[in-house]
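Posting this for the archive.
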Amino acid sequence: MKFWLQIKVVILLLCSFFALGQAEYIHNDEDFGVSDIHFDQIIQYSHLAKLLGEHNQTFLGQTKAAPCSTDPKLMLGYLLFTFLNTSANILNDVSAQCKQDIVTVNHGYLLQKQWALQMLDSIDLFPGSGLLTGNIVHYPGNLEECLDVSDIPGAVKTGHWMLTLVSTDIRYAYCPSGLGFARIGKCFPCSCSNQDIQKISDDYLASTLEVPHKTKVLNKNFKGEEPEGVTWGDVFMIIIASVIAVIVLGSTVIDVVENVLEIRIVRQRMLALTQGFSLYTNTSKLFATHAADTSNPNLMSCLNGIRAISISWVVIGHTLFEMCGTGLLIGNGYMIKNFGVYREDNGPLDKLFMTPFWNGMFSVDTFFLMGALLIAFHTLREMDKIKDKPVQHWIMFWFVFYLHRYIRLSAIYAIVIGFHATFLKALATGPNAHLLLNQADQCERGWWYNLLYINNFVSNIHEDARAYNCMGWTWYLANDMQFFIITPFILYMLWKSPYIGVVLCNLLLVAATAIPFALTWTDDEQFFHGKQDNFYIKPWDRFQPYLIGLLLGFVLHHMRNKKTVNFSIIFNVFMWLVSAVCASSVVYGLHEYNIIKEPEITMPPYEPPVADRAFYNGLSKLSWSFAICWVIFTCVKGRGGVVNSFLSWGFWEPLAKLSYCIYLIQYTVVYWFNSQYPTSQIYTNTLYMYTAIGNLAVCIGLAMVLYLCFEVPLAHAEKILFGLMGIGRMPSASKRNVSVKK
């Protein structure tokens, strides 16, 4: 085995030197390393380097950024960086143990030791195929082969570092080599610290390649790593999870004995308290589906289909962005060999059918609209019931209104945040473990912003907002809670004086349209949908769908006694066509502005005209909301036809119930999968769809666990709490299957 490994390495070395040109290896007693790699001399013998430089500039679209043409030279040269590139003066600046182990490794290499050769073999030393299609940035090496060296007797303990490059020169700011986009795996002794590796790598870049780039260590993996000390947060989460587990399992046993084995062991009152925690009962309820009752005008079964499709759209869209977006230092753990194919005309991402996947931001607006609709519809009905009650009753009504909402959203939200801040680190074992480690660190620092629902303003509070951006995708929940806080004032006006309430909503709608329009018109950096930190996640960009949802809930409340609406078939068909045009135009209308294919169009001077961007950002959510409103209205009022039958299909109901838990964990699932993937891949739309479907399936499975073990039990605990406080009814048990003997 050792012989064949040596032969393999020798053949690879000979092939690489034959292909690239000449390189001079100098070994002496002082260096124990490789020095004076004349990469410039190698390049000048290769017509491929020039071709790569010209082609690189073409598929990057950086017509004015000539420095990007040096990316192939830089990245191919950086592949030759190993533990052999360590001269004596470099080692003088690293820790003593790291220096000693590197010297040992170099001796082992000179003596052709298997473990030293295996360390070298675990590093991508040579460019692979597909250089002309972008295979110049992702070379993760072989993590397992590197770490397995530690198990060989006589070998040094090894570690695998995932490195990236960041430019220190503004001219390289938008080149892949300087964006932090690269993923380069290197195998070194694990006694070296991140600072040691960064020092050695930076010296190599400066002295050998002479480029204005610095190394950034993304993460380090090694065997036998001692876990960090248990924190109070870890202890707290273990206690919480253990208590809930005991309650859920105990309640499940009681429920099964009572209702399956038909043995009476507890009183009816105790069964009522415990049954809501039972896995048996809650699983039955999760998969219980109900056919659409068209005789009930207040049943909104169509929302199940809309909710299920929208959450699936969210997961599939985020999968694409993390697979194909640059992601810089925080994302794109999914390593692609042919990322140049993204820029091809009529390439895989230039297909019309792919547009909804990269322009799927409206899925979140659908949730804003549905949430507001349900709040308005149910709250207005409750307000009718207490219209003659004294002021004290109204005060208690609004107190419960806010308290219930906070507990309902925050209980499972806090559990998931806690898992991120504590247990998530245990899953960070892959080559791109930093994707999960970053999330754990961010939640450990910024969890309280999330529970106060102000995490969409972290960038306004901290200069380094990324360090506190716990579960960054939950900006939606922050906006939703901020809208919810002011909702009672709007609903009261709609209930007390419908005319004034409708006028108020329309005035707010005008303001919510004018603000994103004006912000885009006055800021050249605002692209379609706006910048993430100061536009996309802010409430003034998201208020339109919520307001329209409130108005729709108001309309359906006043029409609650009408089973259907009377308008002609021609008018119905016409409005369905109008709504289809409104929805498809805002999604497919940006097809020619594909930000994955041409990321430079998001920045001046390549961006589209300001009028296009301003009108789109001001009106697109109105157009989308109108389309969704029409679908819901006609389905609820019996004019939805086959669309209502499809959206009200019982198949969607379990998925709709899981949608909140899916949303909470979906990005973490994407990050986890990307962090574990050991090699770079060739992108195809087929690969993307399989990956997206796989991510969705994992999300559904994990969401079921969260739903049954935490969300539903915590909601049941809230009912018990409100019952004990006297502001709600105590839960009741389902009918016993056991007959009681006298």
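The radius of gyration is 30 Å. Residues 138 and 645 are 47 Å apart (CA to CA).
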